[in-house]
Amino acid sequence: MHIHILGICGTFMGGLAVLAKEAGHRVTGCDANVYPPMSTQLEAQGIELIQGFGPEQIELNPDLYVIGNVVSRGNPLVEAILNRSLPYVSGPQWMGEHILRDKWVLAVAGTHGKTTTSAMLAWILEDAGYAPGFLIGGVPMNFGISARLSGHADGKSAETAFFVIEADEYDTAFFDKRSKFVHYHAKTAVLNNLEYDHADIFPDLAAIETQFHHLVRTVPGIGRLVVNADEESLRRVVARGCWSEHEGFGHGAGADWTLNEHADGSFDVVFRGETAGRVEWQLTGKHNRANALAAIAAARHVGVPIAQAAQSLARFENVKRRMEVRGVVKDVTVFDDFAHHPTAIATTVGGLRQKVGAATRILAVLEPRSNTMKLGAMKDALPGSLAEADLVFGFGSREALGWSLADALAPLGAKASAYEQIDALVAAIAGAARPGDQIVVMSNGGFGGVHQKILEALAR
Question: Where does ATP bind (predicted)?
Fold first, then answer.
């Protein structure tokens, strides 16, 4: 089958393209911005890429158009497809029907931690010999790739084929406003957490809870939900109706999975009151410990012993752009992190503070770039999320955001400043930095290559 993918350079659609190619399909695609690194990754797979959405692309005459959710009505290629009644489908539906069918799907949903938890789970299964396929919204450093069909040498399934997928609550396509994850038909579903996000498509938290309950409705009776027991929103979701086994993780009453933390950062995994394994690793933050509990619980559902899963996580290398060290210059360390929601920002800064202690300075550099942040829905929460940083450098113009970042950061006083030009931002950071500082750069975009620019400025 020849499929032509609209919006191919997005993380999800790019991963789908790789899987389709691996499955034997001819794959072509187009996007508004065809540029590295995604373009080079796809071209290395033999996937032809076209810049833009010109209607002449229908002359490729594919068997099917797979349409990503970044593409909307009015797009010239979409209009040509609709006018000619050509066959099309959404990316998530195509995944569900062509890649995930007949597989044991382990889906990881939640406002935060989907990528990291999916990567942990895939690694636990890989280390246990299960050779899972996966599609993850980042690059797990244990694998070096974001998607693969199978880990078996022949690319085919074993007696039972396992597939780990990051399950996003964002909508499916312009013609399908359900969340992506309802198409995946998970047998094991992790509900990591649930907060208000995606203000561009959801009016309130209740609307997102409804979508999460749609996911719950798709899990079979022989399946299992792994649910954050500390989240009131998820308790409401499960209370709407649950037809599967479910286990809770967290610290609250009723949690099946808890942990005992040690001073060196390791922790014991406790299942229903019994210590069942110990995780010894270098990752920081309570969010990563919660992610680990969820991954271990999900892996247990497919047969991986708890102690073995805990040992596997000692060899987990995290995901690119999750507190990834980009360089050290003159004893100043620069980290790259994907945090783009106030809760994630607070978790990232808090985890680093726990690691380095009170005496070490943390310089937080933030680009509020997500749709939710641009709409200003979370701007009032920014000062609190950055409270543990010693200095805060914000980047974003009033024109781009629609609101003043400087005003939003004003409650932080003199320790916060905002910039509209990358060069001015970099100069301010380099001028303020001193040996021993930890600089954490947080954005869900490329941020104008600011990480390397900071390192070069520090070197000068």
Answer: 110-116
